[in-house]
Specification:
By secondary structure, the chain is of the alpha+beta class. The chain folds into three domains: 104 residues, no CATH class; 133 residues, Jelly Rolls (Sandwich), CATH 2.60.120; 154 residues, Sandwich (Jelly Rolls). The protein has seven helices and 21 strands. A five-stranded antiparallel sheet has the order 6-3-9-5-7. A hairpin with a 5-residue loop joins strand 16 and strand 17. The protein is globular.
Length: 419
Amino acid sequence: MHLIAWLAAFWSSVTGVTFSHDVAPILYRNCASCHRTGGVAPFSLIAYEDAAKRAALIATVTAKHYMPPWLPSEPRFQHERKLTIEEIATLAKWAEEGAPQGDAALTPPAPRFPEGWQLGKPDVVAEMRAPFAVPADGPDIYQCFDIPAPEARSHYVRAIDISPGNPKVVHHAILFQDVTGTARKRDAGSGYPCFGTPGFLPARGLGGWTPGSLPFEPPADIPEQLDGGADLVLQVHYHPSGRPETSRTRVALYFTARKPTRHAADIPLGSNRIDIPPGERTYKVTDHFTIPVAVDVIAINPHAHYVCKEMYGYAVLPDGSRRTLIRISDWNFDWQQQYVYATPIRLPADTRVEMEFTYDNSEDNPRNPNHPPARVVWGPGSKDEMAGLHIEIAPAREADAQELADALWGKMIRTLRVR
């Protein structure tokens, strides 16, 4: 054990664990971004009184690694929410000892969060034209909403933040821009059904929202371009909550005068060949793509539903060595998000990126929505399944951007033909 951690453990064993000295720093650092007034979590953990009455719950969910919600075991990403073994033990001991407060004067200052948007005042705020009514029950809904062009001239976007409106029913949201006018024609005012793509090409993604996610900020040299006159299109996945609800999602855009020196691209690995028999514990799907030029891997976004168990994305370098891009050993549909690498990963030309998703459709999978297990096939509903791994990259040399784009277009055409 590291000396500092050992001394902390020794001190706690002598003095006892208190909120002010031991627990507040853990909660403020790892939990407060969601568990605060105005956050997406159902209760706050900032004040001692709020945390103390939930001490047993905190100890239980952290011991099971259900909270804080962080799925990847490797590699390293930005804004990781992971507790150490010592921190989990501290929370357990605090609960066992009756959740003492300690000296309130020693409590560290509570974290401060900006009111409204997390990054401060945006340059532009856009929102759905009207609230969307989500029924009390029934199948999941994938709905696209056209937001008329917020800007007449083009801008470079340094950050995007999305407010879901009603996180009780919004499972996730993805933001696109449409230069074709297709979405505007299809949306009569309350959106239009869409699953998979938003119904137009090219479909340029700008960012997304999942519970607990932070604003999307691309690297400073790769700002996103918002075309003048382009509509914004929100693709929202709604999950009925058991009671009628309404939701109206908003988008905040932050502009920059800095022009990009490189342009990002998306490698869409995935499979729709999913047909999982009931009881099958290790059903696997795979996909791959060979990158023709050297690239930097910036972020990665995995997606599946309830019976997915394990996710593995990796790169096979030209020399045959393997580099892990993401590994999740216990997938949780409720906590999916995009992960941005702590440091971009450089991959040489002719690297092959691969994905392997494993599904457990047995009774032993606690997240299986069917009891007894039933056949599960590819589809849009939460009880159906999907397999997607989006790898965001940028060519190491901007001169290689066209070759990369041509190769990715070829992969997309081949995928559409298979379907």
